[in-house]
Amino acid sequence: GVTNENSHPHCDPTCKISIVHNGIIENYFEIKQRLMDAGNKFTSETDSEVIAHLISENFDGDLLATVRRVLPMLRGTYGLIVMHSDFPDLIIGARNGSPLVLGIGNEEMFLASDVIAFGPYVQKIVYLNDGEIIKIDQNDFSVTNVQRATIKKETQDLESDVADISKNGFEHFMLKEIYEQPESIKRGLAGRINFAEYTGKLGGLNMRDAELDAIKSVVIVASGTSYYAGSVGARMISDMARIPTSTEMASELIAKNIIVSPDTLYFVVSQSGETADTLFAMRELKRKGARVLGICNAVGSTIARESDGGVYIHSGPEIAVASTKAFTSQITAFAILALIMGRGRGMSIADGDRLIKYLAAIPNAVEHILTLDKLICNIAKKYSSCKNFLFMGRGICHPVAMEGALKLKEISYIHAEAVAAGELKHGVIALVNPDTPSLFLVPDDELRGKNISSMKEVHARGGKIIVVTDIDDPEINAIADDVIIVPKTDRELTPFTFVVPMQLFAYHMANILGREIDQPRNLAKSVTVE
What we know:
Elements: E1 10-11, E2 17-22, H1 28-37, H2 49-58, H3 63-70, E3 78-84, E4 91-96, E5 101-104, E6 109-112, E7 124-127, E8 132-136, E9 141-145, E10 156-157, H4 160-163, H5 173-179, H6 181-189, E11 193-194, E12 199-200, H7 209-213, E13 217-222, H8 224-241, E14 245-249, H9 250-254, E15 264-270, H10 276-287, E16 291-296, H11 302-306, E17 310-312, H12 325-343, H13 349-370, H14 373-383, E18 388-393, H15 397-412, E19 415-420, E20 438-442, H16 448-460, E21 465-469, H17 474-479, E22 482-485, H18 494-512
């Protein structure tokens, strides 16, 4: 429960030892039961409190040595910080499966689970790896492991944009980050287009052209918004490069005895680079011999360090829990990757040239969509009393519809379900009624007629219809209650232009309802526990 008693820090019975813990101690119940049988009294319901009690029980005057002895007794994950009131100038930290990073400022040091926490106070950072223990005192820091071996750590400069975090006049970080997308997409494209050969370039893949050309299939592994970006990426790679590509939810892949093929390339996608499910899936794939590349935003994150190569999306700090610009930056990376693999497998110069030109125009297209903000806000006001929504798309727009529904759920707490529009008659149509609006994604492509047929099915049953489209179509206008027209782009790139109106729609719905937009209930920005 969310109570004062369950909040951190947690103390031992003497109130001298305090701990802060991010993670899950899987064997806490057995430990707690033994300690209670020995007379210990607990003040919280958490698994974390047992750590403080264990340290107290084993304390011999040397805090570092005591923590080193206690850690093997814990089964599970932890980003852990320990202090003792008798040693006010000493902090011990430890990591196993949950991120921990040291920040070095001006004669001061900090520990956190994410560099975003450091703000303007830190100039240098040090990432800890699993199994490492850090000791911080008045003079310096040192890193060892459970076996007492000393580990030399290199410091890195903290990126300047991480140190300078503000809303810049926007009411919420989420709205600011939606508006930053033209620039974040430009950064994702910068230096990655080879105009001379009508292809892309991604040096961080650590793969030669011949190795890329030998790949027979691609699997993309991710969670949440990154999973939907990966699903868009899978469509791009399948269509542009003609390589069979699939997407796996990281949490489900962990539950499988997955078969790894030597000619399959695996991508793991995570904004933070610390997502627990995705990290564990990557390690399982690598254990079985897979080549795994990472796509993430956080430089120096665990996935970036442990993968065999990959792509930084360079979207800049994303503070709001609900991801927006990271999504469009991730699909930017996938679009370039699909272009590279496509040009190596028969994509013509003309098609490569066309895709490059459309990619270069995406930032301006998103700029135009942002001018529709007031229109989208008014549409949100119109539907703000609704309790349920349906989101529908076909082809590459299906995962975009899922991302739109996720955004609405995350920050407005309104139930939203995304379905492939072609599945409407296979059960979902039972949910259609005048109080459940349907938001359709209808690009001007070969599926437009089928999408309009699905809209007519909803219209005939009294359902309200909101349409995001890239065509001013009298047939759509006659059926829809509200229409948002976005700039036209290449069919493979419609996710860029179709997702932004849904981000704005979700934002305004949540704002109208007075929700905590940047920090919605029950959610965390970096999901570091399963």
